[in-house]
Amino acid sequence: MIIGLPKEIKNNENRVALTPGGVAELIKHGHTVYVQAAAGLGSGFTDTEYKNAGASILSAIEEVYAAAEMIVKVKEPISSEYSLIKEDQLLFTYFHFASSEELTRAMMERKAICLAYETVEKTDRTLPLLIPMSEVAGRMAPQEGAKYLEKPMQGRGILLGGVPGVKPANVLVLGGGVVGTQAAKIAAGLGAHVTIMDINLARLRELDDIMPANVDTQMSDAYNIREAIKFADLIIGAVLIPGAKAPHLITRDMLKEMKPGTVLVDVAVDQGGCIETCQPTTHENPTFVIDGVVHYCVANMPGAVPYTSTLALTNATLPYIVQVANKGWKGACLINEDLKKGLNVVKGEVVYKGVAEAWNLNLTDVNEVLAAAL
């Protein structure tokens, strides 16, 4: 198969979809890989390293899209890339369709095959291609929150861990999944007092067993959230419904109940956000203030630590990419149920329930689409 690795062009996105080592593995399996010039520089990988791994370097993004049967990316295509996508071309990347109707309709119009990292799902309900970036974003969230709690950043002027004789900050984490668990661990490690909420009592029991003494667990419901935000200095939104929009757990009217300078970090912003007032921001302009509350809503948080993120992403995605390249998307999805669940849009048809429901579109059975494609 001919695989294309374009340079990411979303604002301040420095990750690249594959390391030179990942490219070498594809070459070993007999595939051809085209890498756009400078695609890996933001992550610390040079064109020479990709050449030495066996890739061919192309100067322009248009050349990469024109040559490739499968495009491997990190982030969803942006509007300037839509016209480059060919009918029947496979795109394997993070799409987060439920947060963008424009993107969904554009991919339907291009009649591409859209395999989304974030909905590839194992039989135990885990999301193997989302986990590494969730781990990065979860660990970054308290780090960013601590920075924006500083007074020059319009925060409350609170040190997350406090000092002897002064209480630490109160951190509220909404969601006990991968992001929430990692966020709670880091916030606790910095010395904050942490409360982590979830709707799953069994999960709360697990967290209660593994978390340090400065982490409390609490059942997530509207009353408990409304009470907790009154005392929180940093609130981290870590809610995920795979492939669907995140629910708004904090609404606009709740901001007035928070202390001025409270910081909100909505890691769920890729899926529409779990804080109603959050809108996607960039690393260039990461925050805005509403009713005295600082909102940090960067949609590609791991892009700020691209070396770590690119290695972690390649570790997870490479076995799936190799399988798709070896078998073709149809063959791979027929033998691998994990990959089949990654199909979101196929040749103009929406085949993932969460995406269809998000934009009130017709849902086509993925098995029918696969049968018709054979």
UniProtKB/TrEMBL annotation:
Residues 4-137 form the Alanine dehydrogenase/pyridine nucleotide transhydrogenase N-terminal domain. It is an enzyme of class 1 (oxidoreductase). One of its GO terms (cellular component) is plasma membrane. Belongs to the AlaDH/PNT family. GO terms for biological process: L-alanine catabolic process. SMART domains: AlaDh_PNT_C, AlaDh_PNT_N. NAD(+) binds at residues 134, 198, 203, 220, 239-240, 267-270, 298-301. Pfam families: AlaDh_PNT_C, AlaDh_PNT_N. One of its GO terms (molecular function) is nucleotide binding. Its EC number is 1.4.1.1. It comes from Adhaeribacter aerolatus. It catalyses: L-alanine + NAD(+) + H2O = pyruvate + NH4(+) + NADH + H(+). Substrate binds at residues 15, 75. This is Alanine dehydrogenase. Keywords: NAD, Nucleotide-binding, Oxidoreductase.
